[in-house]
Amino acid sequence: MGSTTRTTTGGSVGAYLLHRAKPHLPPWLGVGGLGLAGTGAHLMWADSVGAGVGLTLSAVALTGATWWAGRETSAQRRLHSAITVAAGSAWVTGAALVGPLSGALPDAYLMGGAVLALSWNVRMALRTSDGAAPESADKGLLAKVGLAKARIGRTEVEPNRVTAALALEGGEQTNDDVARALVRIASALDLPQSAVRYQPSADSARRGELVIVPKDMLGEAQEWEGPSLPGGSIADPLVIGQYDDGSPLMVWLPGDPDAGRNASHFLIAGGTGSGKGDAALNLQTEILSRRDVVMWLSDPKAFQDFRPLLPAYDWAVEGGTGSEVMVEALQQVIPARTGWLGKHSYRQWSVQAAEAQTDPAHSCRPDRTACRCPGMPYMVAWMEEAANTLRQLGDDAFTGIAQEARSAGVSLVVSLQRPSYDQMSTSTRASLPSVIALGCDPRDEGFSLPESVIDQGAHPGAWGNRKPGYCYVVSGGIDPERYASPGRTQQFTPRAVSLMETLAQWAVRNGATADPITAGAARAVAGRAYSGRHADTTDEMEQTTVPEQDDETLTGTLLDPEDASVDPEQELPPDGQRDDAGGLFGTDTGRKPSPEEARQLFARALDEFEAAGQMVVGPKDFMDWCDANGYSRPWVSARLRDAAMEGRLEPTSTTGRWRIVPALTPA
């Protein structure tokens, strides 16, 4: 009984010791194998010079291969492995050439081999605890978020930014798995969702870079202190804020063929309280501070945010019919500008196009001598609160403009709260690839940002209106790795008003004015509604003052034919004999005009609309006129069609709306 117990106990102890010793045996077995390999090699190649050279090269190659294979392991393990392989292969080479028992080789084998084997035993012992190898902190984190088989490689640590290469398990995990795990990684690290993002590799579906920004450097708002480059070119970068790592947040509008960048149209999207107004002011003040650009502005909010800048705009309207006229003018300005650029051999707008054309290479003359034509400044058309304009004109109002404007040196900026499909057509949204996406409802993220950027970790819905000015910017000229990096625009406080007014006056004195091609095309559509920033100094068509009239003028060509028989010195008739003062055009009370008189009245009505700057009209604009003159809406619609056939009106892109052709412009 006792003998059996002792045998069992002894067997159990031996089995336990053997079990614990097994993990430590491979290094010692490797040392023994080296001795046998060196002895055998000596017997075969002791007198061979070629074998010595081959063994030496093999040792170098094996060491290099070990170093390369360990590139995704820790630096310590990689170095330890390379040293072990180099020492072992060097001993085998020496033993093969001179014999394993020659010189110091036996001592090196016994002492060096034991040291190498023990070093691996110590390394293994340090990694174990109660027989279980613990995971590293990185592996533990990845295991928590469902990426246990992923491997973290090269890691770069910068101030407030950690970038780690990530390799996923082939055939089992993809970059999409990392995108879905980002919020869990942020939770495990106790960081906001926007602090963790992933940049997938363009060459692999299972590799990318995990970026972690532990400290939010955007928490304290930065006040606007003025434009970044007053007097510079619009081709230079526009600084509108900073990224979360402190670097400047910059965008570009014109294209640059050398940099491979196309001209940009921008969508500015953000919910109420997200800081959309400040984002617009950042971009507008940068634009208006440049020397070679003009801006048109449509703002249905009556310039609530932009009033200090009003003198700087080439043309500004408050929405409604004014915006309708501006959109129609843009549709005429774009082909006119494209034609001018083409005649002067510009494939797209460049800084040189804004200057007088003194270069024969950009001459419009057949003989290719310098034409000295005035330059064409860059142009920005800004549609603020564009949802109102889209509702009035239709969701395709900007589609054609956005698709054609780039080649004309025109950038379109559309600002609205929610760029959803019921606000903006898919075609128009696709024509506005550049976006400044501020805080929004989480359900609207997909309307503001491309899906690929959201997959990288961009989530403006996480901010809502709690972090005004926070934004993501997607645009040409910006490194795609920055698309998912949050930034913050500068804040405009009441202290900025006086500086904005100063900037506007600087623009009036030093900024660009519309070139003759742009101004002429705008006037051909908008007539007096477009005057240009320096309308009082350009040409006679833009004069706003009316010369003093004398009797000779009144009897000349400016006198209405129907008033030719009126004696200005004659007393007015009694009240009963005069025209009814309530009639819109002075027609007699109770007398319906003849067809010819009605046509004349209608023509005068168009003249009055033009004089008032309302260049787009429809039947609803004649309701008062119909009431005063006893005509129906169908009759007005018929007269509108007649006027279009005569060249006085042109149809717009909106059904039932007509554009008045200015009287001084050939139809």
List keywords for this structure.
single chain; 667 residues; alpha/beta; Gyrase A, domain 2; Rossmann fold; 10-stranded mixed β-sheet; 20 helices; 17 strands; 39% helix; elongated
Q: How much is the average pLDDT?
A: 79
Choose one word for the global shape: elongated
Based on the coordinates given, report the CATH architecture of the largest domain.
3-Layer(aba) Sandwich
Low-confidence stretches: 1-8, 129-135, 535-590
Query: Largest sheet, described in full?
Result: 10 strands, mixed
Rg result: 40 Å
Task: Write up this protein.
A hairpin with a 6-residue loop joins β16 (649-651) and β17 (658-660). The protein starts with a helix and ends in a 7-residue tail after the last strand. It contains 20 helices and 17 strands. The model is unreliable at 1-8, 129-135 and 535-590 (pLDDT under 50). α2 packs antiparallel against α5, α3 (49-69) runs antiparallel to α4 and α4 runs antiparallel to α5 (105-127). The strands form 3 sheets. A 10-stranded mixed sheet has the order 6-5-14-13-12-7-11-10-8-9. Strands 1-2-4-3 form a 4-stranded antiparallel sheet, covered by helices on one side. The protein has a 3-stranded antiparallel sheet with strand order 15-17-16. With 667 residues, it is of the alpha/beta class. The protein is elongated. The protein has 4 domains: 18-127, no CATH class; 137-212, Gyrase A, domain 2; 238-525, Rossmann fold (3-Layer(aba) Sandwich); 593-667, Arc Repressor Mutant, subunit A (Orthogonal Bundle), CATH 1.10.10.10.
